[in-house]
Amino acid sequence: MNDSERFPLEPDAAGMREMTAEAGELIAGWISALGQRPASDTRLPADLAEEIRRAPPAGPEQLETLLERIRRAAEPSYETAGPSYLAYIPGGGVFAGALAEYLAAALNRYTGRAGPAPGFVALEESVLRWMCDLFEMPTGSQGLLTSGGSISNLTALAAARNRLAAGRSDRATVYVGEHAHGSLLKAARTIGIAPGHVRSIRSDADLRMDPEDLRRQIGKDRAAGLIPVCAVATGGTTNTGTIDPLGEVADAAADTGVWFHVDAAYGGFFRLTARGRKRLGGIERADSITLDPHKSLFLPFGTGALVVRDRDALTAAFSEKADYLQDLETDEALPDFDTLGPELTRSFRGLRLWLPLHLHGVDAFRRQLDEKLDLAERVHGELAADPLLEVPWTPDLTVVAFRLRGAGDEAQRRFLERINARQRILLSSTRLGGESWLRIAILSLRTHEDRIAEAVEIIREAAG
Ligand SMILES: *Cc1c(COP(=O)(O)O)cnc(C)c1O
């Protein structure tokens, strides 16, 4: 029997079980071996490239063949799911998150509105409420799941612009720290704020936004007849994990009458830990907060979130009358997600949070985050003790920036190459003050003490 008979477009129960089991074999084998995989090997073999680029055939192929092709296509990569991934901001890996995605797609409920799937929408709303509570948001606040931090930032900026400068985008101005994430510039441009109206706020020697410079620039713009709309602080920069002085930025935003947004895509969920809670103090005063469960909750890529103090700011920016939706029942107690952001039809991301959080409990995530903070402290201490290295900033979270002492950019580049050539860890570099720095970012679920000890050894050897 060929696969077109075994697995037709609508398989029977036995077929579904068999397909699931075959995919499960691939996944279990793959994940169990992550620790041994090279940190980064992106060579795509020519025969495989040819195979995966082929157009879909008119008739069926074998599932087994296709799964093997998928497995081979996954191989050339940065090993983003493994313990070696210490570059950029590491992403997720919680298996229950993947299982949730499978369930969500298989059950395929329509969650753009509450009416067609009140159970699933209530389930998603329960994790959104949990997030609002985590940041002490008041009654009337609202969460929204997005595809990631970029779309969360976009949604927040659109809400702020709509509230303070509706119909006057040409005069709207936005304020971001000099180390802010690039997605904010992209978001501002996308919603029609001129690139020349996005102000870069100076940082101090600790790389933290200077609230005085923020006040000064807002005042200057207002005096010039522009409309200051939003001050964005970062709750853990991508470069160095630095947390801006959130309380002081909140004061400046309140005094100058602008929306206060915190981009906590990387750092937000560290609020679950005692250290993170302290360091992120002031975040609870934000009008909106970007979070990335696919970073600091270890969930699969494509899971972002936004928390907004006033739900009405979102509905004012995003709800539209749609005649063809007139039959949909509304449920006053549940949100219609399509009125809160740009999407109508959407994947049911709620389950990706709900299942892991219930299955493992919040403490399991808290412990993971605490472990990463411990590991970053350890890396900082050990690298700072090495006279060959320059390690000026004590990490607020889990990124440690360092470089070879007294060496230029080219030497730093070769230093990074020597570290990564070992294939046991993957680090990335960035530029700070116009100069090249290496960074180690510890946020993979699967990175533990053993790999970090190895990382320190590799870095020190490569420095010597
Ligand atoms: C990762 C990141 C983003 C962008 O989030 P995506 O999920 O990649 O779209 C925005 N801001 C900060 C601080 C980040 O670290």
Task: Walk me through the structure.
The protein has 464 residues and is α/β, with parallel strands linked by helices. Helix 8 links the parallel strand 4 and strand 5. Strands 3-9-8-7-6-4-5 form a 7-stranded mixed β-sheet, sandwiched between helices. A 4-stranded antiparallel β-sheet has the order 10-11-13-12. A two-stranded antiparallel sheet has the order 1-2. The protein is globular. The chain is built from 17 helices and 13 strands. The longest helix has 23 residues. The model has no long low-confidence stretch (mean pLDDT 96). 44% of the residues lie in helices and 13% in strands. Helix 7 packs across helix 8 and helix 7 crosses helix 13. The site of pyridoxal-5'-phosphate has 13 residues, from helix 7.
What labels would you give this structure?
13 strands, alpha/beta, 464 residues, binds pyridoxal-5'-phosphate
Q: Specify Rg, calculated over alpha carbons.
A: 24 Å
Secondary-structure-based class equals: alpha/beta
Q: What order do the strands of the largest sheet run in, or round the barrel if closed? A: 3-9-8-7-6-4-5
Overall outline: globular
Strand content: 5-15%
Largest sheet: 7 strands, mixed
Helix content: 40-55%
